[in-house]
């Protein structure tokens, strides 16, 4: 099958000679973590370059865990906003263009999901004077991209999608699993938080009940916390904005401890790294557990295609129910979250099974039912 004649018409890029590269991924924390393998490949191809990440305020927090990133450009970009610019804001990306122009990047690598277009970001990079601009797209969009790569199949995992772009640019993959380097302060903050809860060293579980939108939030976390808490200590965590949610799940349950707003993202990474198992929604917490090497049980809503996002670096149980409306990509479910109609006992059993694997103990040691 023939490709579009404009595909990859740009000259081959001499990656080892580049001095400054911009990687564009202005989404959520989990999306940035999914760029880890691409960043590793880019670092191997351009070992002397300064790699900078253009990220949203939420996604920028992941940069501290990815050693390939040298600096972060934090911006609320127009092409990631739902509400359009006002009459007084006819060029909402003007300040970003000026910032990027002053940084003098040699190349920009634009990473997108299958439902996102690289062309708005490419135009911003073109206006900023970045000479090499590479991205994936189903459709041709002119010269905003100097290196346009036709998009692969929509069902490709997000990690493989990014690596596909780099592969077509002459950069081979070095790994296809996630990674995160938890800083010493992250481990220290996690230990301090656990001590503040009165927890002694030993196996524990982490529950992360939050998600970026209500349609991704499992409603049975309190029952899961109660079931797990009878077998091993459970820490229910989240940012300060989720304190009410965290307390609604943890309060009054034996062996279950609320921890909202007490640690930042590196601290949460340290907390997860020390856990026997994590239980999450399809959220940044899922990807963070995957990146730090913690087995994870995921309540995966029907908002997205599981195969595009599933954990791939650790033992994982991905739980959900097939529904005709999936993938819906809705912020709020118009029905009754039938895609997350998973009995809490099933979640507890899956988490305990993974916890036993993580701790290297016989099933009976953590109260795990023996089949």
Secondary structure blueprint with pairings:
Blueprint: E1 20-24, H1 29-33, H2 36-45, E2 50-55, H3 57-60, E3 71-74, H4 94-103, E4 107-110, H5 119-127, E5 132-137, E6 147-150, H6 158-168, H7 184-196, E7 205-208, H8 221-229, E8 234-238, H9 243-250, E9 256-260, H10 265-273, E10 277-281, H11 284-292, E11 296-299, H12 306-309, E12 316-319, H13 344-359
Parallel strand pairs: 1-2, 1-4, 2-3, 4-5, 5-6, 7-8, 7-10, 8-9, 10-11, 11-12
Helix pairs in contact: 2-6, 7-10, 8-13
Can you tag this structure with a few keywords?
371 residues; alpha/beta
Question: Could you give a short description of this structure?
Answer:
The chain has 371 residues and is of the alpha/beta class. The protein is built from 13 helices and twelve strands.
Description of the molecule:
By secondary structure, this protein is of the alpha/beta class. Helix content is 32%, strand content 15%. The protein is built from 13 helices and 12 strands. The strands form 2 sheets. A 6-stranded parallel beta sheet has the order 3-2-1-4-5-6. The chain has a 6-stranded parallel beta sheet with strand order 9-8-7-10-11-12, sandwiched between helices. Helix 7 crosses helix 10 (265-273).
């Amino acid at each position: 099958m023939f490709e579009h004649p404009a595909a990859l018409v740009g000259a081959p890029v001499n990656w080892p000679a580049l001095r400054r590269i911009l990687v564009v991924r202005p989404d959520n924390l989990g999306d940035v973590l999914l760029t880890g393998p691409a960043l590793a490949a880019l670092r191997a191809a351009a070992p002397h370059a300064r790699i900078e990440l253009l990220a949203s305020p939420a996604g920028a927090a992941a940069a501290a865990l990815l050693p390939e990133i040298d600096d972060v450009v934090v911006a609320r970009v127009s092409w990631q906003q739902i509400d359009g610019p006002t009459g007084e804001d006819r060029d909402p990306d003007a300040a970003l263009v000026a910032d990027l122009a002053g940084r003098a990047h040699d190349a920009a690598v634009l990473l997108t999901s299958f439902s996102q277009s690289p062309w708005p970001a490419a135009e911003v990079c073109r206006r900023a004077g970045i000479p090499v601009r590479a991205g994936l797209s189903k459709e041709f969009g002119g010269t905003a991209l100097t290196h346009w790569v036709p998009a692969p199949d929509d069902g490709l995992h997000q990690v493989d999608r990014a690596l596909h772009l780099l592969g077509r640019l002459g950069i081979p993959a070095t790994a296809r699993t996630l990674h995160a380097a938890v800083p010493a302060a992250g481990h220290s903050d996690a230990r301090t938080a656990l001590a503040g809860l009165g927890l002694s060293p030993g196996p524990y579980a982490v529950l992360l009940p939050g998600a970026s939108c209500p349609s991704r939030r499992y409603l049975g976390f309190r029952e899961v916390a109660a079931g797990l808490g009878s077998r091993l200590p459970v820490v229910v965590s989240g940012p300060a904005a989720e304190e009410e949610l965290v307390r609604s799940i943890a309060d009054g349950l034996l062996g279950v401890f609320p921890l909202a707003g007490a640690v930042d993202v590196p601290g949460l990474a340290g907390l997860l790294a020390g856990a026997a198992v994590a239980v999450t929604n399809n959220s940044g917490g899922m990807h963070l557990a995957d990146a730090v090497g913690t087995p994870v049980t995921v309540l995966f809503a029907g908002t997205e295609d599981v195969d595009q996002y599933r954990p791939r670096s650790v033992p994982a149980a991905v739980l959900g129910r097939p529904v005709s409306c999936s993938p819906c990509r809705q912020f709020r479910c118009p029905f009754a979250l039938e895609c997350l109609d998973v009995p809490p006992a099933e979640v507890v059993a899956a988490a305990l099974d993974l916890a036993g694997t993580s701790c290297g103990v016989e099933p009976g040691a953590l109260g795990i039912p023996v089949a």
